[in-house]
Amino acid sequence: MILVGTSGWQYRDWRGRFYPTGLPQRRWLEHYAERFGTVEVNNAFYRLPERDVFAGWRSRTPDDFCVGVKMSRYLTHIKRLREPAEPVARFLDRAGALGDRLGPVLLQLPPNLPANPAALAEVLSRFPAEVRVTVEPRHASWWTAQTRQVLERHNAALCWADRCGRPVTPLWRTADFGYLRLHEGRAKPWPRYGRTALRSWLDRIGTAFPGSASPGGEPVFVFFNNDPGGAAITDASTFAATARRRGVPVSRAP
User: Fold this and answer.
1) ∠ CA 13-66-30, rounded to 5°
2) CATH superfamily placement of domain 2-245
3) Mean pLDDT of all residues belonging to the chain
4) Does the CA dihedral 20-55-40-138 come out positive or negative?
């Protein structure tokens, strides 16, 4: 099925648009999780939370909720994929407190990091098989057969990415799940996505992951990262409604 959500939930300009004006911020996660079935946590990229924070998120969300977590920039941007054993172990020790709520781990690589498939393979080997990992390279040198083979060998998904309604990555399928991040649409008000762009992404998902159209089939995670003005909330809801009209199973969305 398709699991649709947003990249984060703590945006002040969502108050009054998505969160009731009188709802305290400490209750925003519960409000979000009642309306969406998944979220991508971005703040772990800047500062990895302690284990009890992840445990708290688990205790505050429903049993069917799924949390994708962005890997700490310490590994991707400071170490630049070198010496991954300790950063990966520390990340898993803390994020593992999510238990069965833990979704895919996102490795977003720096735009100035050229391809190093061997280093990526070493990083991926540090994750246990039961942890889904998705990789978002942002340097054009990564788009090679060798990169694709590394991802396939480790059942790691190439993170599809969109900007301005167009793919900025190859549409490779490299794992038994998919992962899509939508960063910025071209519709008005900015940075909204138009319905044509959203339908196009549903077409691409259906082509690469035909099992996503069946209950219990191939999961595809779709996260809207265009948060200003509540655009991500609106677009995620529209995307989910469009999928439902096509008969595609999709996680809850308002």
Assistant:
1) 45
2) Protein of unknown function UPF0759 (3.20.20.410)
3) 96
4) positive
